[in-house]
Each structure stands twice: as structure tokens, then as C-alpha cells.
Amino acid sequence: MIRLTRINRVPLVLNSDLIEHVEITPDTVIAMTSGQKFMVLESADEVIQRVIDFRRTISNRPDKVSVCEEPILATDEER
After folding, report:
1. What is the rounded distance in angstroms from the CA atom of residue 19 to the CA atom of residue 36?
2. Within the chain, where are the H helices?
3. Which of 28, 50, 68, 75 is the most buried (most CB within 10 A)?
4. pTM of the model
């Protein structure tokens, strides 16, 4: 998800995986796979950079959390 600002200055959080294309008219228009279109204040380059940053964030997180399969037992000294 990326944070953008609609042309009327209302914040918008957009699922970047659903962006079909970005048009550069005088305003930046984002077309979604659903057919919706959003005009935003950010430039096309800024939208692209936010998508890249979001995907980097996702790709850099650990896939799995380490889970110990064997129970850890207290030693005689710890009891």
C-alpha cells in the first residue's frame, strides 16, 4: 500500500499491486485494474518511487519467524 494525496488534498492509501498504468496529463492520473481512476498531486516519478520503496520493504522482511521445534527444558541449576 502506498500513501498519496488526491487532487482535492484528501489522503489516499492505494494498493499498488492494482495499478494498471499512470497517465501524465497536467495532473497525474492513476488507472486501476478495476477501472477506477484517481487524480493525485504527486508526480508520476514520485508514485513510481513509492511503489518501488513499498516493494523493497516487503522483499526485505524475513519470510519466516524462527520457531524452536524442541521444547527448552530448564537445567537443574535454573529450577
Report:
1. 10
2. 44-60
3. 28
4. 0.73
Q: Mean pLDDT in the chain? A: 87
Angle at 20 between CA 17 and CA 22, to 5 degrees: 110
Q: Does the pLDDT at position 13 exceed 60?
A: yes
Say what the pLDDT of residue 60 is: 81
Cα angle, residue 74 at apex, residues 69 and 79 outer, rounded to 5°? 160
pLDDT at 59: 86
Contact between 39 and 29 under an 8 Å Cβ cutoff? The reply is: yes
Residues 6+ apart with CB under 8 A from 34: 18
Query: What DSSP character marks residue 75?
Result: P
